[in-house]
Design goal:
Layout: E1 4-10, H1 17-33, E2 42-47, H2 54-64, E3 68-73, H3 79-90, E4 96-99, H4 110-119, E5 124-129, H5 137-152, E6 161-168, H6 169-175, H7 185-192, E7 196-201, H8 215-229, H9 232-260, H10 269-301, E8 308-311, H11 312-315, H12 322-325
Parallel strand pairs: 1-2, 1-4, 2-3, 5-7
Antiparallel strand pairs: 3-8, 4-6, 5-6
């Protein structure tokens, strides 16, 4: 039997964490009793620099039950970095890792389907929402539009999939080879390759606490996904520049003709509109190019993505060999 670790990034989740821990401990106990996973399997909470009592709760869970462990980052590094930190830590102890959010909106019973796909030889299994009926009309429209935009930009991504997935140690080892600082795991994981499949599930509403992804952060995350994985926006600007250049030549010929015919009409409206339109386009182009230059700047620094302050599992590292785990 394989050792399963469930990795959960947490940021200010003291309201939600007791509910999540209770649900996951029941799930792990059931899977262990059914001999689907090893008794050494655990839930690993990753505290992403929380300002509330999240870490205190994680330590309490760890002391009260061997099925809980935790990792504390030295400071807040964002959801994607916290998730990566959990994956990179869990691979030292686990054979397979399931990542999910702390809000329990992802159906934990889908893990059974993950394990079935794993038994069929899959290295990566994606949790995919079967519908978006629980979302508001605005969120449903923007989410569906975003996935279509990513697809149009040439980004390989699983539709209606967030960060609820199973990955084998082999897949996580491959993920570790990606060195970029600008993380968008939903787009990077499919690049790993290996045999993969999907499991659909119904997404529930958050039971406690507040969403850590308000509109502003969602928009920032959307821009991150596009600019981290596609250069099409720059190519589109190049194409638009060429188009405007040809339009300018045509307009120049047109104005020369009407000038020679003596039908020149002096006016400022067309000039003013042209100046404003081209000025706005230039600023937009500079902004898009600047976004990519900023990412190059961050990548060139090669700064560490995270620092682990405390790894509770190091205290409980039993030192089993792979043969002993089986």
């Amino acid at each position: 039997m394989e050792i399963l670790y469930i990795v959960i990034p947490c940021y200010n989740e003291e309201e939600m964490l007791p509910i999540t821990a209770k649900a996951l401990i029941r799930k792990l106990d059931t899977l262990i009793a059914e001999e689907k996973i090893s008794p050494l399997s655990k839930v690993m909470f990753v505290d992403d620099g929380s300002k509330d009592k999240t870490w205190e709760l994680i330590e309490r869970f760890h002391r009260s039950c061997d099925l809980f462990t935790g990792v504390k980052l030295s400071r807040n590094k964002g959801h994607q970095n916290a998730l990566l930190a959990g994956l990179m830590t869990a691979r030292k102890y686990a054979d397979i890792v399931v990542s999910m959010d702390a809000d329990l909106q992802d159906d934990i019973n889908a893990i059974d389907g993950f394990l079935e796909k794993r038994a069929e030889g899959c290295e990566i299994v994606y949790g995919v929402r079967s519908s978006r009926e629980t979302d508001t009309g605005f969120k449903r429209f923007t989410a569906e539009g975003y996935y279509k935009l990513l697809e149009a930009m040439g980004v390989e991504i699983t539709y209606n999939h967030a960060d609820y997935r199973l990955m084998s140690r082999r897949a996580i080892d491959a993920l570790a080879e990606f060195k970029e600082v600008n993380l968008f795991l939903r787009g990077i994981v499919p690049m790993v390759g290996f045999k993969s499949d999907i499991v659909t599930y119904e997404r529930a509403a958050r039971q406690a606490g507040e969403s850590k992804y308000p509109l502003k952060k969602m928009l920032s995350f959307a821009v991150e996904g596009i600019t981290s994985l596609s250069v099409k926006p720059i190519r589109m600007i190049t194409g638009l520049g060429i188009l405007i250049f040809f339009v300018a030549i045509i307009m120049l010929i047109y104005f020369l003709i009407i000038h020679c015919m003596g039908r020149t009409v002096q006016g400022w409206t067309s000039i003013l509109m042209s100046v404003w339109a081209l000025g706005g386009l230039q600023l937009l182009a500079i902004g898009v190019i600047g976004e990519y230059i900023g990412k190059i700047y961050l990548e060139a620094k090669e700064r560490p993505k995270f620092f682990i302050d405390i790894d509770l599992e190091e205290d409980n590292n039993y030192g089993y060999s792979d043969s002993e785990k089986e």
